């Protein structure tokens, strides 16, 4: 599958600006931010004037929604808000990790009208038809953000969210598991330890 690079996001939890966690500025310690590496994207479909991209790796582990409540939809979830710059959580994904020129290339999704989104179940099955294609590794940075109660073995694939709400209970959202199998029942919306793979349409 073709890959492209677009935007930047921390992916190495030990890579600080200037190579140091702390610098001394005017005699005072100053914490340096993490370096941001180029984001690798899989090209799921390519049309005459645009492409659908999915992050190759899970860039974060985040809840689909920050609290356990009924009637959660993709549109009102906190994850949708963070990806599209409507909710700040250590900044937001769209505004903090793409240049102005890159943002101008991002096209709203025809179904959700979001510039950054998660794949739906139908999209996942259409563009990633096999279990092997759906398996996904997290970045080292994403793993570093896991709570200590979550155990992760180096090299393991991760569970990742899709945006389709469970058919059984609207407090749950569908996921792809570590083996690349999709799960229609899914996980509770406020569960931590599920990976985030942003998707977007861009102009060529």
Q: What secondary-structure arrangement, pairings included, does this model have?
A:
Layout: E1 3-9, E2 22-25, E3 28-31, E4 37-46, E5 50-55, E6 60-61, H1 78-83, H2 93-96, H3 100-105, E7 106-107, H4 121-127, H5 131-134, H6 140-144, E8 160-165, E9 172-176, E10 182-188, E11 195-196, E12 199-203
Antiparallel strand pairs: 1-4, 2-3, 4-5, 5-12, 6-11, 7-12, 8-9, 9-10
Describe this structure in words.
With 204 residues, the protein is α+β, with helices and mostly antiparallel strands. It is built from six helices and twelve strands. The longest helix is centred in the middle third of the chain and has 7 residues, at 121-127. It is globular, with a radius of gyration of 17 Å. The mean pLDDT is 93.
The whole-number mean of residue pLDDT values reads 93
Structural domain count: 1
Strand content: 25-35%
Question: Which residue ranges are poorly predicted, with pLDDT under 50 across at least 5 consecutive positions?
Answer: none
Number of helices: 6
Q: What would you call the shape?
A: globular
The helix content is 10-25%
Summarize the main sheet. 5 strands, antiparallel
- End-to-end CA span: 17 Å
Strand order of the largest sheet: 1-4-5-12-7
How many strand segments?
Answer: 12
Q: Quick summary of this structure?
A:
Helix content is 16%, strand content 29%.
Can you tag this structure with a few keywords?
29% strand; 204 residues; three-stranded antiparallel sheet
């Amino acid at each position: 599958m073709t890959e492209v690079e677009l935007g930047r996001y921390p992916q190495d939890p030990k890579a600080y600006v200037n190579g140091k966690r702390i610098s001394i500025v005017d005699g005072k310690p100053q914490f340096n931010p993490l370096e941001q590496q180029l984001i690798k994207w899989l090209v799921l479909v390519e049309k005459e004037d645009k492409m659908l991209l999915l992050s190759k790796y899970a860039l974060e582990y985040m809840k689909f929604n920050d609290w356990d409540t009924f009637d959660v939809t993709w549109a009102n979830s906190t994850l949708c808000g963070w990806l599209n710059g409507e909710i700040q959580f250590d900044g937001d994904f769209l505004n903090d990790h793409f240049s102005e020129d890159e943002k101008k290339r991002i096209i709203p999704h025809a179904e959700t009208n979001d510039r950054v989104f998660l794949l739906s179940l139908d999209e996942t099955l259409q563009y990633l038809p096999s279990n092997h294609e759906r398996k996904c590794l997290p970045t080292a940075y994403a793993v570093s953000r896991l709570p200590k109660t979550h155990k992760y073995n180096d090299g393991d694939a991760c569970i990742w969210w899709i945006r389709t709400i469970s058919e059984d209970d609207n407090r749950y959202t569908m996921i792809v598991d570590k083996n690349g199998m999709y799960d229609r029942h899914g996980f509770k919306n406020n569960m931590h330890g599920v990976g985030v793979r942003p998707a977007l349409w861009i102009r060529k």
